[in-house]
Amino acid sequence: MEARFALPPGTGQTSAARVLDDWYVVCRSRDLGRAPRALTVVGLPLAFFRDGEGRPAALLDRCPHRNVPLSGGKVADGCLECPYHGWRFDGGGACRRVPGLAGEAESPARAARAFSCVESDGYVWVWPGEGPPDREPFRFPHLGEPGWAVAHDAFETVGTLHAVAENALDVPHTAFLHRGLFRGTGKTNELEVVVRRYGDRVEAEYIGEPAPRGLVGRLLAPGGGMVTHFDRFILPGIAQVEYRLSDRAHLVVSSALTPVDDQRTRLFAVVAFRLPLPAWLVRPILQPIARGIFKQDARILALQSATIERFGGEEFVSTELDALGAHIRSLLKQAERGGERKAGEAKERRFRMRA
Amino acid sequence: MEARFALPPGTGQTSAARVLDDWYVVCRSRDLGRAPRALTVVGLPLAFFRDGEGRPAALLDRCPHRNVPLSGGKVADGCLECPYHGWRFDGGGACRRVPGLAGEAESPARAARAFSCVESDGYVWVWPGEGPPDREPFRFPHLGEPGWAVAHDAFETVGTLHAVAENALDVPHTAFLHRGLFRGTGKTNELEVVVRRYGDRVEAEYIGEPAPRGLVGRLLAPGGGMVTHFDRFILPGIAQVEYRLSDRAHLVVSSALTPVDDQRTRLFAVVAFRLPLPAWLVRPILQPIARGIFKQDARILALQSATIERFGGEEFVSTELDALGAHIRSLLKQAERGGERKAGEAKERRFRMRA
Amino acid sequence: MEARFALPPGTGQTSAARVLDDWYVVCRSRDLGRAPRALTVVGLPLAFFRDGEGRPAALLDRCPHRNVPLSGGKVADGCLECPYHGWRFDGGGACRRVPGLAGEAESPARAARAFSCVESDGYVWVWPGEGPPDREPFRFPHLGEPGWAVAHDAFETVGTLHAVAENALDVPHTAFLHRGLFRGTGKTNELEVVVRRYGDRVEAEYIGEPAPRGLVGRLLAPGGGMVTHFDRFILPGIAQVEYRLSDRAHLVVSSALTPVDDQRTRLFAVVAFRLPLPAWLVRPILQPIARGIFKQDARILALQSATIERFGGEEFVSTELDALGAHIRSLLKQAERGGERKAGEAKERRFRMRA
Fold first, then answer.
1. ipTM for the complex?
2. Is residue C188 part of a domain?
């Protein structure tokens, strides 16, 4: 049959990147209990469970015997048990039991593929590459420091990790898409932006930025003033926004992004804050605002994704205002090819924007 | 994975044709107001809106910046504004505003692709080809002529433009599928059919046809008698049925067909009539009959389309009764290749049918 | 666009086989009445109806004229009539009527493709190959024999014919998936399994098996004891389980499997039994148990099928406990290639299992 479109073939390009050799957040530690969980990470269907010692474990979610998903079974004796014939696998993937078999259960051919899995900062992390891991998971800043409080939230959206990271770190859309909620529509200033690109990250510093207006601004800086504002992307998927208003207020939102597959992304937001207001007051104000912003972003990201699919690929035109998008893309593509990530000297670029 | 069918591979043939260089109805003029509208025409996702002067405009429904559909935004200052970063585009596609940008907004790289769009006979029409248009849209006959009234209706159905046009102009199925409603089941006459093929159209004239029986017949010709009956297809998608009963009654149903994509078609029916009954009485009788007929046809067209998809292509066997189908197909395929459409001398063919 | 998976490409292998040259059950005889029925068999969309003599007939479910499914029409004058233009086809596929046509309706080009169709043992069977059939349909054992009763049921599930047959004839999963319902969880015995492979079938005999525990066991053999137990697969899709407890009880479940397409299978279960209990008591107990077992199996088969699809092919690891699966697969693949099916001498293999 012929294709369905009068459109010329699209670019076939997408910003989806498959960086397998790194750590991704799976879920909060408290959300992996007795029952196994099925979660797809970078396109890999995985079954997560806790072994006999309570350590998190991840197996490819397919029984080597008859290809039924192991996550449909249950945990028995610290092993994950297939619901079809009851084969059991330990956290390392070794087959420990084949009901009915007269001989030995364990055999290399019967092993399930296992992935490195750790707990850190209250989250379960997985390394979807072949391993073994050659680094530690990202550490969320300021957790447990005196004077600091923390809030957690999690979302899932249609969109590549790149699209979600660019969105999370993009300044111009906040004044437009989140108008009123996040930024005001009052008079504009011109501010200077410094972009610094490293081997494993890129950051933008905004100089001369007044305290954000709108609801979020009034919460962070009731008295106004100038802010220190950084946006950062750190491989493989940390999108970090840092706001500081001298000594009065400091806020770091670190979003750990986990690609479900090439088209869907999970976002685990860890908000560390030191504010003039008590944490018990900040949290219930922060959460509905964060969810409102996320809902607007998720809607746009889904529309973007559907349009890219429909047109057969991305075809972006950028301006200097798109400060980080191209850098995030090149970092991801380079990491996908297994390129080195030496921090090294930053390459710096400056431009002016109106905000 | 292997294919799912024991069926041998299908013909891969479909009657879908992509004639881009011509005018297609988008909607009635009154149905394009202040809000933009997303409509797909010949597979092109388009965003329609009215510019500062109220003229209809059509842009490819994808912001050049980050590929969000422009139709999700709103019209501001006579421009279509993207809902993500607020970029604005005028009716010609030029970028007029990039919020936050210190420099000039307009730049050829930032332009959205625009399509020619006009209003004619109370409809908005679009030319999905590169343009510029080298002809006017089709004019519906008898609009505004003394003694004539008009009724409008619109439908959408699964089916190629070819399948819908053939269905709209096919006589034998009316006696069968629309039995009772459209034609009776009484005794059959033999009548002569003359098919005349021109460079841009084909018509069938039915000679010796008694006034149609059934509900429609009783409405058009309460006294019976012989009718003058023409069925016409005019490129790129006008299916026209004309019935005349001497001086008593005259009816021309012009259906403007717009392919949504290769598998779906919109039908805008313009019914011009001069009847012994007053228009206020005809319209409420006509509409439910037309909708009843359309519903039966749409059901069959959807079944046909699904079967063709399932079998991997069309595989039609025709008889002489299929007077126009092959001509419509060759006209469309020739127009798709950009062939000339000189009216010229007609090629004529005659046959007899029982009706 | 790029693929959506980080997974390496799958094996591309599935156990789906397209054995066209054999008989498959379509439905029970009583379920093909006056109205035509649309049923897909081995990927072939077929329209079934009864001709003027009440004989079942099967046509390819596509009108040769304009490709509308014939099953959407009705039976008239012993012919199947297309709902679009009313063309009529007899049980052999010949076109018998073209409404409106001045000349003769019958013509080889206008014929619908017909398939051999018979009634046997109260079922309608079809031969989806080109034919003519060179054998009779499978006969269900013990039907109508003195002392024997019969129960019928039908199911449809996701899964290849191979996966469904292997599941139906697999012993180890019954102790696990159907724990309690079908087999108990008590102490295990070791028993001997003899596998006998013939040209057209394979059977497993279980020697030293105690009467099954659980609900089914208590029904079949209230007093326990040793059973004679055979599992058989007979081409193209009969899965047969036979239990005998000396003279007290004898049960043969013959499941005729019909592939809908490569991914779905229909199962027609014919349960012949001679038990110490009266048939009117057995049937209402048997049916809910059978349906409960089937529901559990269908859930697992659907999970298995989805996982195979997701991973791009089957990748099975087997043990000697998988007594019949590989044989069923090679029988099907050999029949698909049109290989001979001489019964001949059996090849025998023995192993021990714990049950």
1. 0.93
2. yes
